[in-house]
Design a protein that fits this description.
The complex is a heterodimer of chains A (about 325) and B (about 325). Helices cover about 30% and strands about 25% of the residues of chain A. Chain A is an alpha/beta fold and about 325 residues long. Chain A has one domain: Rossmann fold (3-Layer(aba) Sandwich), CATH 3.40.50. In chain A, strands 6-7-8-3-9-10-12-11 form an eight-stranded mixed beta sheet, sandwiched between helices. Chain A has a four-stranded antiparallel beta sheet with strand order 2-1-4-5, covered by helices on one side. Chain B is of the alpha/beta class and about 325 residues long. Chain B has two domains: about 220 residues, Rossmann fold; about 80 residues, no CATH class. Chain B is about 30% helix and about 25% strand. In chain B, helix 4 runs parallel beside helix 7 and helix 7 packs parallel to helix 8. The longest helix of chain B has 18 residues. Chain B is globular and about 65 Å long. Chain B starts with a strand and ends in a 7-residue tail after the last helix. The C terminus of chain B is likely disordered. Classes of the chains: A alpha/beta (about 325), B alpha/beta (about 325). The interface between A and B is large, with 53 and 54 residues.
C-alpha cells in the first residue's frame, strides 16, 4: 500500500487553561490519500479546526506523529518548515477575515511567490493573472481591494492564494459555510474542477453532512476530540455504524415535503465540556443505546467493514 | 382578519453615497397560530422587514417611507413610542440569531426574564420570579433553578437560545418573530430548538414569523413561505406547493441547490450564476433578471408585480410552468 499524502498517527493536542486541560484532540489518526478528499464532520468544539492547525503544522502536538508523504514532520520548526508550507495550504471560513483588507488582490496573491522566491516581478504578475483566470475572476480584480468584492468572489481569491505555490494538499476549514446557497455551489464546483485538473487533495472540514458527502472520497466523524467513525464515503453515508453519526444525519433538516422527522430524530442533552469528557465512551451521556460497559470502558477503534472503522461497543 | 397584515411596506436607508431603498412594497400576512417563513439570502431584506415591524431600525439612517403594518387591525406605524413599547416584547416578541449578543452579558438569566415580565405586567417580584422559573421549565432548560442564577457566558449556545425564547414568551405574545434562530447552532442543537418552537406554538397558539435562509428549516416548521430577493417578495404560497412546484426561477434555483443531497458525489452542482446586486446598483426591471436563465426582454425593463399563481403568488414575467424535478426526488436519509 502506498503512503498516504498526509497521515496523523495517534495525535493528541491538549491545551492547558485556567479551568483545566482541554483535550482538543485525543489519539486521533487520519489519512488523506494523494489526489483524494477526506471529509471531516462534527459539531463545534469537536476538534475539527485543531486537526486543521495540526495538519498545517501551525501548532505542536503533545503526542503522536504527523507524516507528509511518508516523512515525519512532527517536530519541524522554523526554517525547516519552509519546504513544507508550499505543499500544504489552507482556505479559511471567512474570507473577509482571512484577506488583508488593505492589500490589493494582486498583492495578496503575489505574496506567497515573494516569500518563497518564485520568479521575477513580471513572471509573478503573469502568474497572478493566470490564477485569477483559473478561479473564474476577471484579471482586473488584481487592482481591487477585498471590500470591493462579494463574499463568493473573496472566497475565490482565498482559493487562488492557496493555489499560488502548486500545493499537493489544501485544508478547507468550513470554506463554504459563510456563503449563501446560490454562491456555495459555484465555489464547490470550483474546488471539484481544481481537484480534477490539478490532482489536489483536500482535507475538507465542515459541519454540513450533505456538503461533505458531495466533496469526499472518505469521511471521518469527530466527537469531543476523537474520531468515532471513519471510512469510505458510501459506507459511512449509507450504513453509518456509530450512533452519533446516525444522530447527525437525522438532525439535518431536509426540504423534502413530508420528510418531517425532527421529533423522533434529534439527540437529547448538551455537549459535555471538553475540560472533563465523560468516562468510557465519550458519547455515552447522550447515546440512546448506552450500556454499563459504555460508561466504564472506552471503545477501541475497530474495523467493522472494508476500511470502515468505528469506535463503539455496540457497532 | 389576519393577525399581522403588512401592506406595501417601503423602507429606505440614508448612506454616505445617497438614499437606497431596502424594501419595495413588501406585502405579507400572518394568521393567528400560523407560521410564515421569510426566506432569502443575505441582503434580501428579511431582517429589515422584521425590524420594520417592531420599529427597531435606527432612526438616524432608516425610515419607513410607505405602507401599513396592521396588527390586530391597528397600524403599528401610526402608534406613538409609548404605545409601541406596549406592543414590543408584549404582544410581539422577537428572538435573534446570536443569543450571546442579544442577552445582557452582566445580568443573570432569571433576572432578564423577570425584567421582561415586570415591564409589561403589574406583578410582584416574587410572582415574576415564579413565572421566570415556569418559563425556563417550559423551554426545557436543564436544571432551571440553577440556570436562572447563571450569566449568559456560563451557558451553552443551545441553552442561551432557550433562555432568549423564555424571555420572548414572558408575556405570552400573539406573534413571535424568530430571526435565523438556529443558524448559529450545531445541527443536533438546531433540531432540538426547532422542535421546541413547534411544541411551544402548539401549546400557546402564537403565530410565528420565521426568518431563515435554510429551506430545510422552512420545510420542517412553516405553513406558508415568502421568498425575498433584493428587497421584494418574489414568490409566496403554501410550503408544500412552493417546495414542489416553484414558479419563480429564483425559488427554483434555491431548491436546485438542495440537489447536493441527492446528486452523485463529486458531480457538478447546479449554480445560480453571478451574485446579488448591491442596493445602490439595482438593475432596471426585475432585480433577478441578470442572473436568470429564463429572462426575456420585458424582464429587463419592467418590474414584475406579485400576481396569483396556483395556490400562491409570484412576481415574474417568465414564470416556470414545469414542476422542478430536483426536489421531488430527494431521497430520505437513512435514519
Amino acid at each position: 500500500m502506498t503512503e498516504p499524502l498526509l497521515a496523523l498517527r495517534h495525535v493528541s493536542r491538549h491545551y492547558r487553561t485556567q479551568g483545566g486541560t482541554v483535550r482538543a484532540l485525543d489519539d486521533v489518526s487520519l489519512n488523506v490519500a494523494h489526489g483524494q478528499t477526506l471529509g471531516l464532520v462534527g459539531e463545534s468544539g469537536c476538534g475539527k479546526s485543531t486537526v486543521a492547525r495540526v495538519a498545517m503544522r501551525l501548532t505542536n502536538v503533545d503526542a503522536g506523529e504527523i507524516r507528509l508523504d511518508g516523512e515525519d514532520i512532527t517536530t519541524r520548526q522554523g526554517r525547516a518548515l519552509d519546504d513544507i508550507r508550499p505543499r500544504v495550504q489552507m482556505v479559511f471560513q471567512d474570507p473577509a477575515a482571512s484577506l488583508n483588507p488593505r492589500a490589493t488582490i494582486g498583492k495578496t496573491l503575489e505574496a506567497p511567490l515573494i516569500v518563497h522566491r518564485r520568479g521575477d516581478a513580471a513572471a509573478r504578475r503573469e502568474r497572478v493573472a493566470a490564477m485569477l483566470d483559473k478561479v473564474g475572476l476577471h484579471r482586473d480584480m488584481a487592482h481591487r481591494l477585498p471590500h470591493e468584492l462579494s463574499g463568493g468572489q473573496r472566497q475565490r481569491v482565498a482559493i487562488a492564494r492557496a493555489l499560488m505555490l502548486d500545493p499537493e494538499l489544501i485544508v478547507c476549514d468550513e470554506a463554504v459555510s459563510a456563503l449563501d446557497v446560490s454562491v456555495r455551489a459555484q465555489v464547490l464546483n470550483l474546488l471539484l474542477d481544481l481537484r480534477e485538473t490539478l490532482g489536489i487533495a483536500y482535507l475538507f472540514i465542515s459541519h454540513d453532512l450533505a456538503v461533505v458527502r458531495h466533496m469526499s472520497d472518505h469521511i471521518a466523524v469527530m466527537y469531543l476530540g476523537q474520531v468515532v467513525e471513519q471510512g469510505p464515503r458510501d459506507a459511512v453515508w449509507h450504513s453509518p455504524r456509530h450512533p452519533y453519526t446516525r444522530a447527525l444525519m437525522a438532525s439535518a433538516p431536509s426540504a423534502r415535503p413530508g420528510a418531517r422527522r425532527l421529533q423522533q430524530a434529534s439527540i437529547a442533552g448538551e455537549l459535555p465540556s471538553p475540560l472533563s469528557p465523560p468516562s468510557g465512551c465519550r458519547f455515552h451521556t447522550r447515546c440512546p443505546h448506552a450500556t454499563a460497559q459504555c460508561r466504564e470502558l472506552a471503545p477501541v477503534f475497530t474495523e467493522r467493514g472494508v476500511d470502515h472503522w468505528v469506535a463503539c461497543h455496540l457497532a | 382578519m389576519a393577525l399581522l397584515d403588512i401592506r406595501a411596506l417601503r423602507t429606505g436607508f440614508t448612506t454616505a453615497t445617497g438614499h437606497v431603498t431596502a424594501l419595495h412594497d413588501v406585502s405579507l400576512s400572518i394568521d393567528r397560530g400560523e407560521t410564515l417563513a421569510l426566506v432569502g439570502e443575505s441582503g434580501s431584506g428579511k431582517s429589515v422587514t422584521a425590524c420594520s415591524i417592531l420599529r427597531l431600525l435606527p432612526r438616524r439612517v432608516a425610515r419607513v417611507t410607505g405602507g401599513q403594518i396592521l396588527f390586530n387591525g391597528a397600524d403599528l406605524l401610526a402608534l406613538d413610542d409609548r404605545a409601541m413599547q406596549g406592543i414590543r416584547g408584549n404582544r410581539i416578541a422577537m428572538i435573534f440569531q446570536e443569543p450571546m449578543s442579544a442577552l445582557n452579558p452582566v445580568m443573570r438569566i432569571g433576572d432578564q426574564i423577570i425584567e421582561a415580565v415586570r415591564l409589561h405586567r403589574r406583578v410582584t417580584h416574587a410572582e415574576a420570579h415564579a413565572r421566570a422559573l415556569a418559563l425556563l421549565e417550559q423551554v426545557r432548560m436543564p436544571s432551571p433553578r440553577e440556570r436562572a442564577n447563571d450569566f449568559p457566558h456560563q451557558l451553552s449556545g443551545g441553552m442561551r437560545q432557550r433562555a432568549m425564547i423564555a424571555i420572548a414568551l414572558a408575556c405570552e405574545p400573539d406573534l413571535l418573530i424568530a430571526d435565523e434562530p438556529t443558524t448559529a447552532l450545531d445541527v443536533t442543537t438546531q433540531a432540538q430548538i426547532l422542535a421546541l418552537l413547534k411544541r411551544l406554538q402548539a401549546e400557546t397558539g402564537m403565530a410565528m414569523l420565521l426568518i431563515t435562509h435554510d429551506l430545510g428549516v422552512v420545510a420542517e416548521t412553516a405553513n406558508r413561505a415568502a421568498v425575498m430577493y433584493a428587497g421584494r417578495v418574489v414568490e409566496q404560497g403554501p410550503v408544500e406547493a412552493l417546495l414542489t412546484r416553484p414558479a419563480h426561477p429564483y425559488t427554483a434555483g434555491l431548491l436546485a441547490a438542495l440537489a447536493i443531497e441527492t446528486l452523485p458525489p463529486g458531480s457538478r452542482l447546479p449554480e445560480i450564476p453571478g451574485t446579488v446586486p448591491p442596493l445602490s446598483a439595482m438593475p432596471a426591471g426585475c432585480a433577478f433578471a441578470p442572473r436568470c436563465t429564463h429572462a426575456v426582454a420585458r424582464c429587463r425593463i419592467e418590474v414584475p408585480v406579485l400576481e396569483p399563481a396556483g395556490s400562491g403568488e409570484v412576481a415574474c414575467h417568465a414564470r416556470l410552468r414545469v414542476p422542478s424535478p430536483t426536489v421531488i426526488e430527494i431521497e430520505e436519509v437513512a435514519a
